[in-house]
Amino acid sequence: MKDSTFCHTIAERINTGVLVLDIEYNIVEFNRFMQVHAHKKQEDVVGKSVFEVFPELPRRWFERKLASVIQLNSPSFCSWEQRHHLFELPHTRPITTDSKYMAQNCTFMPIVGEQGISHVCILIEDATDVAHYQGKLNHVLDELARANRIDGLTQVFNRKHWEECLDKEFSRARRYGHNVALIMFDLDHFKKLNDTYGHQGGDKVLVDTAARIKSLLRLCDQFGRYGGEEFAIILPETDLNGALDVAERIRSSIASTVINFQGSAIKVSTSVGVSVIDSSHQRYEDLISSADYALYQAKKLGRNRVANSHDFATDAALC
Fold it and tell me: Which reaction does it catalyse (predicted)?
């Protein structure tokens, strides 16, 4: 059996696309895999430009890729992760994917003849299954990562992730001398509310409150559930006046909202503590302590109000 016949027989039988081009980009070999998946006969494509047969090819990229293979006399590779597909070959898998075309791993190999490199062989591997299951795995990993950051009830940051955010923001503010403010608030008389409406009623209040407050914040603000009915907000690049303005909007919004639960109209209020980074804060925990102390003072002064830690700095230092 002649070498060319032997190679042609192998190319026809393997479950991989084989496309051979001359240096003018004309098709020389178009194996059975390509015929089946492209729905094109070999006699209809051999001798034609690959760009005529596959007009969807990214021509400039494709020409540069082949030029590199020829000039360097070295194989090259393009995975489905770089480009989902080069050739629009419909996949035949009984699965739902984001694309109707086969995901492809493509290998470009120079073919050396007597006059040097005369052709380039492109092997097209069907990577649809790999791409599909990798996508499902990535989705699961994204969901796990999100679950590690998000409070399951209120859908804001959980305490662990929120404190990690505060640690980074606090360090950045200290390093560059920028402002960062912290707001801590909780819902007044929440235990009584739970006793009256049950935990489902309490959960409804927490969920609605978190959603309402989230709508008042900037994209750069970081909102978390600190514990129970207590929440905390990091305000980057915010001075005291700006933080007090946000805090008052939060207090006013909660106080003016009626939450409907099983035919009952629930009204709640909140006490808010505000603190802004200063020289007394050596660690992010110090900033939390200041805001928490201001929250304590807001409750002590009658609830449903905003308190600023700087107004109680001397008292806080003694505690």
Answer: 2 GTP = 3',3'-c-di-GMP + 2 diphosphate
Say which of 163, 229, 237, 248 is annotated catalytic: 229
Give the C-alpha separation, 189 to 211, whole Å: 20
Pick the closest to residue 294 from 262, 263, 271 (CA basis).
Answer: 271
In the block, tokens 């514990």 appear at 227
Q: State pTM to two decimals.
A: 0.67
Q: Is residue 26 part of a domain?
A: yes
Please answer whether residues 182 and 242 qualify as being in contact, where contact means their C-beta atoms are separated by less than 8 angstroms: no
Residues 117 and 7 in one domain: yes
CATH code for position 265? 3.30.70.270
Q: How many CA atoms within 13 Å lie on the side-chain side of 24?
A: 6
Assigned domain for 149 exists: no
The pLDDT averaged over each successive group of 10 residues in the chain (319 residues) is: 58 84 95 94 95 96 95 94 93 70 95 86 93 88 89 96 97 95 97 94 97 96 97 97 97 96 95 95 96 96 94 57
CATH number of the domain enclosing 104: 3.30.450.20
CB within 8 A of 176, min separation 6: which ones? none
Coil vs helix vs strand at 179: coil
How distant is the alpha carbon of residue 247 from its chain centre?
Answer: 29
Q: Specify if 147 maps to a domain.
A: no
Number of separate domains in the chain: 2
Domain extent for 252: 154-318
Q: Do the Cβ atoms of 31 and 17 come closer than 8 Å?
A: yes
Is 229 known to be catalytic? yes
The SS3 call for residue 227 is strand
Q: Which residues contact 256 (CB under 8 A, 6 or more apart)?
A: none
92 backbone φψ class: left, alpha, beta (φ>0; ψ -120 to 50): alpha
